[in-house]
Amino acid sequence: MSQTTVDAVADPRMTGARARPPIGSTGPLGWVRANLFGSWWSTAVTLLLGYVILRVVVTFFLWGVVNAVWTVPYSPQGIANTAACQNAKGIGACWAIISDKYRLILLGRYPYDQQWRPAICVLLFIGLYGVSAMRRFWRKELALIWIGTLVLVGVLMWGGVLGMPMVAEDQWGGLPITLMLATLGLACAFPLSVLVALGRRSTNLPAIKMLCVLYVELIRGVPLVAVLFMANVMFPLFMPQGVNIDKLLRIQVAIILFTGAYLAEVVRGGLQSLPKGQAEAADALGLSYWKKTAFVVLPQALRLVIPPLVNTFIGSFKDTSLVLIIGLFDLLTMGKVALSDAPWQSFSTEVYLMLAVIYFVFCFAMSKYSRGLERELARAHRR
Amino acid sequence: MSQAVHALPHMADTKAPPAIVLDKVNKWFGTLHVLRDVSLTVAEKERVVVCGPSGSGKSTMIRCINRLESHQEGRIIVDGTELTDDTRALDTIRREVGMVFQSFNLFPHLTILENCTLAPIWVRKTPKAEAEEQAMNFLTRVKIPEQAKKYPGQLSGGQQQRVAIARALCMRPKIMLFDEPTSALDPEMIKEVLDTMIQLAEDGMTMVCVTHEMGFARQVADRVVFMDRGEIVESGTPTRMFEDPQTDRLKLFLSQILRGH
């Protein structure tokens, strides 16, 4: 180490006047100078925006921390006395509503003493995402991990075995419902979308192609809200008497079909952008259609569409909140339920802020992961 | 219309059994007639070079031989199997026919070694270790065994094309098709690819090669076939074709490519 330093000093190129760029043109200071104060116009915008940002941050800090009400007293009957919050309204946040309602919002109307079960389910889902995100787990066993985890989630949520009392679906709610709808939705919609995209590109199976086009165009032409209403209200009308498919399942299928149509178009874009020579080379080597697709076409096509795929994933994750309108108790619905409690009715800002943070954490993680994955794959293949 | 000198299908002089027979093959792209009554027989171990101006149908013809393109009239028989819509016949033929493309078409997401072992493992059901050993043999033959762990994007064009040749050879084909294998290469890389092809020819591979490399044609071809506007105009030994062209179209073509060199 010291040897290098001595060499550097001894080197005339390093000690000479031209060895270093002018002071202030590199490093953080250089960046600030070039990007924030490059001209008088740029300086003016920087100062103006700096003032606005400072105002917002200070206001939020005063509202959210300094003047915030963290706890409220409760009457002997357990009813909250929110007078302190009412007095602080407009000046300080009422975080007491969060500490009062967070379990209701996150875990729904699940029996209070059994709420460790949905809580574990949430952790299981997060663990599942973590495992699936790691490339070294991308092998056949991952499918078993998924199936195992989902079965475990089902057992925990329903119960009825191992001394856990049975809990019906209408008592489920909050984050487990949201994660379930999103996870199962995407996990089933993605393979479906690949098949539909392949079908739509098929040249020698016109009937399959028609079917795929019809599916994508029909579903894409209808808002998700309408699809959910149809699954909830219309679908049971078409079923034979006595056949009653569970509401949660119907909604889950509706979400899968809806997401599948959008994802199919993204996957099709990837398939189309692949040079024709790749499939031809696979053909010339004698690979069958499915082997060609699995080993040559899809690995490349899907890599090309990671950004729009994740875009659709994030959109679908947030879209699960639309089940609010058909009365499924997902995270957003539970937020509204919490606000219907009389003493807390006027503190929606705090609750929605909390919900926003939860949604943001999941979506941001997806986005961050996809960028990392893109970089990693690009590094591996193009070095 | 036809100025063809040989009235008969362009036959090889050898007595060897035919590896490829094209019999009055016709093909249209929409209303465009791209192959007109193309008849050609390639004997086993014969090396045929196909040349002609761009748009003459030479690539289309070679792509018909392993059915990357399908023909609409006439018959194509490869290694004793006729090409039809029957997919089993097609699978058989594609195992026996290797192809090298102008744009290499290596699989960029797989390493060089994986490129070479994919088809042997999944089509020929060769055990992985054996497929890898065999792939290393062929990579050694094309003189790039040290690149086996790299990805195609890390190799030069000439190296990529040599990998493409090795990849095709790993399937142990009886026939090799080359579709302008040097056209996408920088001049200094053409030689290394041609050397590999010459070596292959010397080993007795049946080859059909679309190329403008007249030096290569002279050195290894048993026969040169000249195509223009979708038909075979003239064929013969390289010496006869280049020194004594019979048709005006070939004379014109030769004068054009010679001026270019």
Strand composition percent of chain B: 15-25%
Which class best fits the helix and strand makeup of chain A?
Answer: mainly alpha
SSE pattern of chain A, N- to C-terminal: HHHHHHHHHHHHHHHHH
Our measurement of the CA-to-CA distance between the termini of chain A, rounded to an integer number of angstroms, reads: 30 Å
The pair of chains with the biggest contact is: A-B, 22 and 25 residues
Structural class of chain B: alpha/beta
Listing every helix as H and every strand as E from the N terminus to the C terminus, the arrangement of chain B reads EEEHEEHEHHHEHEHEEHH
Number of strands of chain A: 0
> How confident is the prediction overall: mean pLDDT of chain B?
88
Quaternary organization: heterodimer
In angstroms, what separates the terminal alpha carbons of chain B? 31 Å
Number of helices, where a helix is a run of at least 4 consecutive DSSP H or I residues of chain A: 17
**General shape of chain B:** globular
Helix content of chain A: over 70%
What do we call the CATH topology of chain A?
MetI-like fold
CATH class membership of chain A = Mainly Alpha
Overall geometric form of chain A: globular
If helices are DSSP runs of H or I spanning 4 or more residues, what is the number of helices of chain B? 9
The Cα radius of gyration of chain B reads: 18 Å
Uncertain segments of chain A are 1-10
> Helix proportion of residues of chain B, in percent?
25-40%
Record the SSE blueprint.
The complex is a heterodimer of chains A (383) and B (261).
Chain A: H1 2-10, H2 12-15, H3 27-35, H4 40-66, H5 83-88, H6 96-107, H7 116-133, H8 141-158, H9 175-201, H10 206-220, H11 224-238, H12 247-273, H13 276-284, H14 289-304, H15 306-319, H16 331-339, H17 348-382
Chain B: E1 18-29, E2 32-43, E3 47-51, H1 58-65, E4 73-78, E5 81-82, H2 87-96, E6 97-100, H3 112-122, H4 128-141, H5 157-169, E7 175-179, H6 187-202, E8 206-210, H7 214-220, E9 223-228, E10 231-236, H8 238-243, H9 248-260
Parallel strand pairs in B: 3-8, 3-9, 6-7, 7-8
Antiparallel strand pairs in B: 1-2, 1-4, 4-5, 9-10
